[in-house]
Amino acid sequence: MSTATSRWRALGALMRPDARRWTGLGLLVALSSGFSLAGPLVVRRIIDLAGEGGTAAELTSLALVFLGLAVATQIILVIVSWFSTVTAWHTTNQIRLQLAEHVLGLDHEFHRRHTPGELIQRVDGDVTSVSDFLGRVVPRVAGAAAMVLGMLGVLFVVDWRLALGSSVYVTVAAGTIVRGRHRAVGESTEEMGSYAQLYGGIEERLTAAEDLRANGAGAHAMWRFVEESSDAMNSSVRRESAFLRLWWAVQGSVAVGSAVSLIAGAVLVTNGSITLGTAFLMFQYVLLLERPLEDVVQQLEVVQKANGAMVRVIDLLAVQPTILDIGTSSPAAGPLAVEFDGVSFEYADETDDSTADDTFNDTERVLHDLSFTLAAGRSMGIVGRTGSGKTTLSRLLLRLVESTHGELRLGGVPIADIPMTELRRRVAMIPQEVELFSGTVRDNVTLFDPQPTDAQVEHALGRVGLGALVAGGIHRELGAGGAGLSAGEAQLLALARVWLREPDLVVLDEATARVDPATEARLEVAIAEMMRGRTTIVIAHRLRTLRHVDEILVLDHGVIVEHGKREALAGDDGSRFHHLLELALEGTS
Amino acid sequence: MTRQPSVWRLAWRVMNHRPREFWLSWSLFVLFFTFPVLGGWLLGRGFHALENGDTSRVYVFALAALLTDVLRMTTIHAGALVFTRTWVHMQTFLRANLLTAQLASGGPESGQPVGSAGEAITHFRDDVEDATMFIDGLIDISAGTVFTVLAAFVLGSIDAGAATILIVPLAGVAIATRTLDNRIKRYRATDREASAAVSGFLGDVMAAATTVKVNGASTHTTARLRTLVDTRRTTAVRDRVLDDGVQAFAQGAADVGLGFVLLVTASAMAAGTFDVGSLAVFTAYLGWLSFLPRMVGRVMARRKQAGVAFERMRGLVADHDVRNTVLTRELPIGRRESRPRIAARRPAREPLDVLEVRELTAEYPSGAGVSTASFTIRRGSFTVLTGPIGAGKSTLLRALLGLTHEAAVHGSVTWNGREVVDRAAFFVPPNVAYLPQVPQLISDSVADNITLGEMSLDQLLRALDLAVVRADIDEMPDGTATLIGPRGLRLSGGQRQRVATARALVHAPELVVLDDLSSALDVETELQLWQNLAAAGMTVLAVSHRAVALDRADQVLRMDGGHLSVDDFSVKA
Q1: How many C-beta atoms lie closer than 10 Å to residue B366's C-beta?
Q2: Among A88, A563, B152, B559, which one has the highest count of C-beta atoms within 10 angstroms of its own C-beta?
Q3: Are residues A239 and A90 in the same domain?
Q4: What is the mean pLDDT of chain A?
């Protein structure tokens, strides 16, 4: 949990790139405060002049001056509003991008534990709260502060005792408000959390909408929604109570201020220290203070939201990836040899999430003392039942997870010593489930990289048998989540992504799982071609895809139970691989 | 399309969702606004006494004004607490209507499914907020009106001319707001669109974080995000500055109003007939008087924003009828309310003899789809659907089950010879269960994901056995109570698929429809599954390409380019 100081410091750091804009804004705010303070001084003169027997003409011209000031103040306020909003969004867009990049750099584990809906809320929703704070509250608070200082200055010139009394009053009032604010922050953070959960839950249910509809599970989903809404309601009521305490502090200050200014005025006017006009000036200044304070109170919700949001932004920025990019060695160019040297892996106990216990699918997620070598340019098929650890093995190769014991070397270099950009360029994976983006076909192949030419993209698509997509134009928009492509087509598209990068090690994780036999046959040619000159690891349920690999490795419960040349194992009646082949071919006519 | 009700009528429905709480908090707000009338008057009397040198009376009036403020605060304290509950209730009830429409299996409540979930969340968050903010504004307006009327009486009795001149700046605000109305609506809509684009893209990227990572594409996706947030900055600034501008103008009207008062009363002041006490009452009221035009300006903008919001929410509910966003609903979300599980409304089981599909056609606007598919499924049979990707297999299954909302579907589907009219409503368990190609799980326990409602442990365990996932679940520390994480990501791909299969089997459906389940299962597991289903005597329609499935099939449906051909092996010579 970050302290208030560190929160301010962090906010300051985030604002620093736009320091010039913020300074300009500060000057504008000071100007508008000056104008606001001038109005009551004119009224004071009017009252005193009326008491001294001034003429109607004199009073009228002063009234016109007041009117002019009022109009000018409003014009400046609109400019302040425009400029502060522009600046706030400019600054917070930088924060959004920084957060998005940071989150994308976090471990695979982090993403397994947070829904996309929650991350949207944290990267965009929270930052919008900060943005509203910077754009709407900061200028108002700064304006109120400038106004208070200006008032004290004016009062000091008028009567030092008034200035001293007001200073004490302002200090006590500000102290009360600030203390109340601290108490409210915690509740606000919790409220934000419960709403993030509510929206995250809704998002998840909408993602699963077809599953739920087809299973007649609407009522069940609604029950969960009601539970989460109830949490949201409770946290809102708690937040409101804390907020009300704060409101009492602000309103109480103004109420006491008005009464005291009147009483003090009575004392000072009676003994002749100040004029009636000055007594009225004090009263006007208290009222003048009420408006920005009321404003700030109305915006307190924004402040609290922003405060909670800021805590969460800082917390998110504080999450560090455990897989660090500190390597400096590069394996020699060309295909990469793969060496597993006593590699074991198990998922660590969760420390930051007490309810999570990720060790429950041990069989899937643990590898024991794996040692094998795959020479550069050769290909290996990995076979094993669901849960044998195949997917974990592929994640190790991509450095999405890190081995707990032993060493994994690519091209003779320990994987942790290879700079991440190089690793990502040279090692490619086609995962089980292909994720698509709302964007054009091209965007989905290049993943928004502007570098490759259209011709290169079209070529890559052609090679994986998606010529039909090229015919439709690669700048055609796919719907959200890649609507308009079948799962099989998506898988082919993922293959095209890899084609474009010319990697040195390719990991195909059930890559052709969603492809029908006819397409698979076409794809086989493309895969065989891709294997040429590259090291390839193919994880497959369908043994047909393994027809072209050089070696086979059979995994069971995280242990290598068989490793050898494909032909040799296929020919050996007693081998596990032979047994699997028989099963697959069973009864085919 | 029937005529859609106005925003006012919709707001009225929302207010009266829980009338007692709503009107109580409304009354407290109105009462709250009467206190400043009294307080300002007392301060005015105080200054009057001061001018006349009556110091002790000044103290009395000052303390009386302070007491009035304390009463004011007490009233608002009670009002705000009641209102917070009302507020959450109003929002929850709108969200509940949207969610019900999105998740209903056919029937009158079922609405058009939205595209991306990331984008849909803006309806549940921002549109609901906008719709209720309008109501919040209406409360402020009614309270502000009460204050204005009372204040007008007091000010009018002090100086009728000065009170009348105040109408000028207030009217100016109303005229300016009306002029800006349409622009506010337009800016709001474009800003919402830009926001939806940002969150939609972020959702895609976060859901695909691993893909982005593995492809080293963080920099490029961030660059795309940059263009989206920059666009949104422009729309957000326009939206908010106009909103603030309207407010600032209304607020400024108070100061301009005081200027007018000073002008009008200049001669009276010079003559001594308009004293400091009178000026104090005007000054004290002006801050509060500016509240009403400010709120009028704001609420006019909010009315427009609420209109945009209801218009957008309309897209999610049944028949695109906006009235379906404000259907009354019992939502026990209070702290002390019990929340009994609502039993799912499922159709009565109708044992299957024969399902006949005749000339089923599903046409997407893009032209792809399925044309005139006909086949028959008999009780206890095993039908395999196969064919190349993009041939329309999933479309055929989804059209059959009434899930293709975006396509035009024709043809007939009969169950035991009777036409099934609302297929989405009928083809749910216990009649039919469906496993999509990429099943989605939710961050609940294993048991919750499978049963999706109350069910006996026996049924659950039987489904686990059938789906060949019992051993996996037994190994987990909490068994069926194990939480599976967001979207089920704490399970392996194969486990997710089998848990989803168990979900399809748990109701012992008359017909189980499995879309390409083999993609995530190894051949041994798939074989085991087919054997289990055969042993249980289930009627199965499944997409598969594997020999282990095709060999066992009573009939094989082959799809190619949207056309279906049937190989029937069950009628052997």
Answers
A1: 10
A2: A88
A3: yes
A4: 83
- pLDDT number for residue B83: 94
Q: Cβ contact (<8 Å) for A586 and B548? A: yes
Which element (helix H / strand E) includes A506? strand A505-509
* pLDDT score of A589 more than 60: no
Question: In chain B, which residues have their Cβ closer than 8 Å to the Cβ of A126?
Answer: none
- The CATH number that applies at residue A400 is 3.40.50.300
* Selected residue of A122, A188, A206 to mutate for chain B interface (largest B Cβ count, 10 A): A206
Helix (H, G, I), strand (E, B) or coil at B411: strand
A211–B contact, CB cutoff 8 A = yes
> What CATH number is attached to the domain comprising A173?
1.20.1560.10
CA distance A18 to B56: 56
A398 and A298 in one domain?
A: no
- Residue A255 contacts B where some CB pair is shorter than 8 Å: yes
> Is B208 within 8 Å of A436 when comparing Cβ atoms?
yes
A329 falls within a domain: no
Q: CA–CA separation, B454 vs B460, rounded Å?
A: 10
Same domain, A303 and A391: no
How far is Cα B446 from Cα A222, in angstroms, rounded to an integer?
18
> Could you report the per-residue pLDDT of B226-257, keeping only the tens digit for each?
999 999 999 988 888 887 777 777 677 778 88
- Per CATH, the number for B7-195+232-326 is 1.20.1560.10
Residue A540: domain span: 338-348+358-585
Q: How many structural domains comprise chain A?
A: 2
Instruction: Label the pairing between strands B555-560 and B563-568.
Output: antiparallel
The answer to whether residue A326 is domain-embedded is no
Query: Which of A54, A276, A447 comes nearest B276 by C-beta?
Result: A276
pLDDT of residue A363: 40
Out of A248, A266, A355, the one facing B483 most closely (by C-beta) is A355
Higher pLDDT, A199 or A489: A199
Q: Using CB atoms, pick whichever of B99, B120, B522 lies closest to residue A386.
A: B522
Q: What is the pLDDT of residue A361?
A: 42
Q: Collect all residues with Cβ–Cβ distance below 8 Å to B103 and sequence separation of at least 6.
A: A205, A209, A212, A213, A217, A218, A221, A222
Residue B555's contacts (CB-CB under 8 Å, 6 or more residues apart) are B375, B381, B383, B384, B566, B567, B568, B569, B570
When CB atoms are compared, the residue of B256, B389, B390 closest to A70 is: B256
Please name the residues between 350 and 379 in chain A that touch chain B, using a CB distance below 8 Å.
Answer: 355-365
The confidence score (pLDDT) of residue A358 equals 40
User: Rounded to whole angstroms, how far apart are CA atoms B20 and B415?
Assistant: 49
pLDDT at A585: 64
Its ipTM equals 0.84
Q: Does A276 lie at the interface with B, CB-CB under 8 angstroms?
A: yes
Which one, of B526, B514, B511, B543, lies nearest residue B385 by Cα? B543
Considering the domain architecture, whether residues A274 and A129 belong to the same structural domain is answered as yes
Does some domain include residue A62? yes
Centre a 10 Å sphere on the Cβ of residue B73 and count the other Cβ atoms it contains: 17
| Chain-chain contact of B424 with A237 (C-beta, under 8 angstroms) | no
The residue in chain B having the minimum alpha-carbon distance to the alpha carbon of residue A465 is B389
| Confidence check: pLDDT of B547 > 80 | yes
Structural domain contains residue A8: yes
CB contact under 8 A, A227 and B99: no
Instruction: Tell me which chain A residues have a C-beta less than 8 angstroms from the C-beta of B318.
Output: none
In this prediction, residues A147-157 reach a mean pLDDT of 88
Domain locations in chain B as residue ranges? 7-195+232-326, 354-568
CA-CA-CA-CA dihedral for B326, B328, B330, B331, to nearest 10: 10
The angle that helices B291-314 and B218-271 make with each other, rounded to 10 degrees, is: 150
Work out the percent of chain B whose per-residue pLDDT is above 90.
45
Task: Tell me whether residues A101 and B218 touch, CB distance under 8 A.
Answer: yes
* A241 and A385, same domain (yes or no): no
